[in-house]
Recover the amino acids of this structure.
């Protein structure tokens, strides 16, 4: 189904070059762009149908990568379980800024080599793919995975983001769980650090709809917008768990410069980003 056909059914649908990550929209990768649908205009059944259609549409079968039972189960909606027992997690990856010389097969083999007990790994489309890992006692943590991607990014001159799913026991429900993890990944792609997981974004992702309905939060948001660069500042401190030195490094500014901005924001708003309750409130205002 092409964009014009979808547009005739959902007139408010639109395309962008990035994921946009507005919680009010249901977002999917579409060819080399992103397609967005207004959630308010979708029923639950329509949302599920769009997941089925667009996950299928984005599929570009790559003859370089052998098909697997996991591909058939997750992408082709085959009802046969890809394994008989065990716990598995799905690591999603999305690659940007690749040039025409980028070798997907070479990158995928390098990426797989860092993980133990890989059941399957494949690209779903030109930039997005999955790695499925079987739990056997030890797994690379988030920081280690970030280090891997940073190394590969330097080697291949690309920019990669990843989402580490939870381990789940094998069952038919894994397909629904994957669909939700996929939606989370696409919607949080430009809001989170290079590699993230459910605990990193659960608060912002699941609280966003309730916050949107609050007149108090909306008023505070309007006031927050009047402070230039504050959203970036809040995000940096939140992602670095209140550590001022790490936040300054994240923003590529001197620690004293960051301290000055924090003091100025406190004088203007009465909110101290050094206080964890104030920081939490300010972070919620940015989502």
């Amino acid at each position: 189904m092409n964009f014009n056909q979808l547009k005739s059914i959902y007139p408010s649908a639109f395309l962008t070059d990035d994921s946009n990550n507005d919680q009010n929209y249901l977002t999917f990768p579409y060819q080399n762009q992103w397609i967005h649908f207004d959630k308010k205009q979708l029923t639950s059944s329509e949302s599920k149908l769009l997941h089925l259609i667009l996950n299928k549409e984005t599929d570009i079968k790559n003859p370089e990568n052998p098909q697997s039972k996991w591909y058939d189960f997750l992408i082709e909606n085959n009802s046969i379980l890809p394994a008989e027992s065990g716990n598995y997690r799905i690591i999603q990856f999305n690659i940007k800024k690749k040039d025409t010389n980028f070798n997907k097969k070479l990158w995928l083999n390098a990426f797989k080599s860092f993980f133990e007990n890989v059941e399957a790994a494949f690209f779903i489309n030109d930039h997005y793919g999955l790695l499925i890992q079987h739990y056997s006692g030890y797994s690379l943590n988030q920081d280690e995975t970030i280090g891997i991607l940073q190394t590969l990014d330097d080697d291949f001159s690309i920019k990669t983001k990843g989402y580490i799913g939870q381990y789940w026991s094998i069952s038919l429900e894994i397909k629904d769980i994957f669909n939700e993890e996929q939606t989370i990944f696409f919607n949080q792609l430009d809001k989170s650090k290079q590699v993230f997981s459910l605990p990193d974004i659960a608060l912002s992702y699941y609280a966003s709809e309730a916050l949107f309905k609050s007149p108090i939060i909306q008023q505070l948001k309007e006031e927050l917008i009047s402070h230039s660069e504050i959203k970036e500042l809040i995000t940096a401190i939140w992602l670095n768990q209140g550590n001022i030195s790490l936040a300054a490094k994240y923003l590529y500014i001197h620690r004293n410069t960051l301290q000055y901005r924090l003091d100025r924001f406190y004088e203007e708003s009465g909110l101290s980003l050094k206080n964890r309750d104030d920081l939490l409130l300010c972070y919620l205002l940015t989502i």
Notes: The chain has twelve helices and nine strands. Residues 58-66 have pLDDT under 50 and may be disordered.
